[in-house]
Backbone:
C-alpha cells in the first residue's frame, strides 16, 4: 500500500477504530492504567480529541495482552494499515550468541598471548522499555502515532499521541536494530579493537 492510499484509507476508516470494551473489565482497567503510566513517563501525549486529528492521519487501536502478572499494551498497526505501507529491502543485522562467543574467544586468546589467566564471570542485561528509547520521526509523529484506548471510567475511547517507537509496528523492529547496530559500530570505530577487548575483559573477567 502506498502512502497516498494509506492516507485515504485512514480518513475513511477512522470511525471504525474508535474501540469498545474488550469484555474483560480487569483487562480494560490494566490497559488504561498502563497507558496513563506511559503518559506520566513522557512516552505518550494526550488526551487528543478525535475531531482534532490531522487529515490523513492514522488512528490505531490499542489492546492489552496478559503476560504473567502484567498486561502488555500492543498497537494494532495491521488493522490501521500502517504495517501494510511498510516495505523493506534490507536484512537487519542482529548480534546473536555467535558474536558473544567470538568476543569471549578473542578476549581469552588475547589474555593467553599476554600470559594472563582469566576466569569467566558473565552477566546479561535487558533494556528497560527498549523501543521507547528511540523517538519517532517528525513525519510519523505528526500523522501515524495516534492510539485509541478504551477508557473504563467513561466507557468511551480516548486518543493519545505516541512520541516513541510503538510496539506492534513492523518498522519499529528495523529502526531499533539500526540504532543499536550504529551505536555498536561507532563504539568499535572510535574506541578501536584493542580498547574494546580491554574494556570487555574488565567487564567479563577477573585475573586468576
Residues:
Amino acid at each position: 500500500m502506498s502512502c497516498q492510499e494509506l492516507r485515504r484509507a485512514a480518513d475513511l476508516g477512522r470511525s471504525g477504530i474508535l474501540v469498545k470494551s474488550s469484555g474483560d473489565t480487569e483487562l480494560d482497567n490494566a490497559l488504561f492504567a498502563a497507558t496513563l503510566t506511559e503518559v506520566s513517563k513522557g512516552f505518550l501525549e494526550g488526551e487528543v480529541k478525535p475531531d482534532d486529528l490531522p487529515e490523513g492521519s492514522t488512528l490505531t487501536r490499542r489492546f492489552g495482552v496478559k503476560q504473567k502478572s502484567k498486561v502488555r499494551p500492543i498497537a494494532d498497526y495491521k488493522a490501521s494499515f500502517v504495517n501494510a505501507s511498510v516495505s523493506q529491502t534490507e536484512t537487519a543485522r542482529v548480534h546473536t550468541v555467535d558474536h558473544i562467543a567470538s568476543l569471549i574467544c578473542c578476549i581469552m586468546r588475547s589474555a593467553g598471548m599476554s600470559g594472563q589467566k582469566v576466569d569467566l564471570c558473565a552477566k546479561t542485561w535487558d533494556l528497560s522499555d527498549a523501543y521507547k528509547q528511540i523517538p519517532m520521526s517528525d513525519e510519523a509523529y505528526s500523522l501515524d502515532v495516534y492510539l485509541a484506548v478504551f477508557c473504563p471510567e467513561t466507557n468511551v475511547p480516548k486518543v493519545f499521541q505516541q512520541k516513541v517507537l510503538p510496539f506492534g509496528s513492523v518498522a519499529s523492529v528495523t529502526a531499533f536494530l539500526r540504532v543499536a547496530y550504529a551505536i555498536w559500530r561507532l563504539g568499535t570505530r572510535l574506541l578501536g579493537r584493542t580498547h574494546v577487548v580491554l574494556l570487555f575483559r574488565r567487564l567479563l573477567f577477573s585475573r586468576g
Notes: The longest helix spans residues 170-204. The mean pLDDT is 84. The longest strand covers residues 59-67. Residues 3-207 form a domain with the HIV Type 1 Reverse Transcriptase; Chain A, domain 1 fold (CATH 3.10.10.10).
